Automatic annotation (TrEMBL):
<dbReference type="Pfam" id="PF09811">
    <property type="entry name" value="Yae1_N"/>
</dbReference>
<feature type="domain" description="Essential protein Yae1 N-terminal">
    <location>
        <begin position="18"/>
        <end position="56"/>
    </location>
</feature>
<dbReference type="InterPro" id="IPR019191">
    <property type="entry name" value="Essential_protein_Yae1_N"/>
</dbReference>
<dbReference type="InterPro" id="IPR052436">
    <property type="entry name" value="LTO1_adapter"/>
</dbReference>
<protein>
    <submittedName>
        <fullName>ORAV1 protein</fullName>
    </submittedName>
</protein>
<comment type="similarity">
    <text>Belongs to the LTO1 family.</text>
</comment>
């Protein structure tokens, strides 16, 4: 009777072993894919934010040298953009409002570009990011 039980139960045993092996392998592959995706997405966000910060700091420096009284409003908007970027939580990938804050920064950037009469287009390509005017 034990010999037949081994034969009859073999399919169920092999099914269970195959499931466990597949689960372990899939979990490992999923973690690797998740790390790659996270690193790529993080690099894109960092590149975008870095571009905005460089843009804002450059324009802030240029406008400070001008004596035009209309620049004070532009400088305040640039200060606001710079402050938002400096408060952005780069080190916390679990920050629950990351996307919301990123959208606010993008909106402020567009507002600043409008105030400066600059048409902006931020694109992420495979080789590099670019900001065109």
């Amino acid at each position: 009777a034990d010999l037949f039980d081994g034969i009859v139960m073999a399919e169920q045993r092999f099914h269970g072993e195959g499931y466990q092996e597949g689960l372990a392998e899939g979990s490992h592959a999923g973690m690797d894919e998740g790390r790659r995706h996270g690193a790529l997405h993080g690099a894109r966000v960092g590149s975008e934010i870095g571009c905005y910060l460089g843009f804002a700091l450059t324009w802030h420096c240029l406008l400070q040298k001008c004596t035009d009284p209309k620049n004070s409003k532009k400088l305040r908007a640039l200060d606001s953009l710079i402050g938002m970027i400096q408060k952005f939580p780069y080190e916390d990938p679990t920050y629950d409002k990351l996307q919301e804050d990123l959208e606010k920064i993008r909106g402020k950037f567009k507002q600043v570009c409008s105030m400066l009469n600059i048409q902006s287009d931020f694109r992420l390509g495979h080789e590099r990011s670019s900001l065109t005017f």
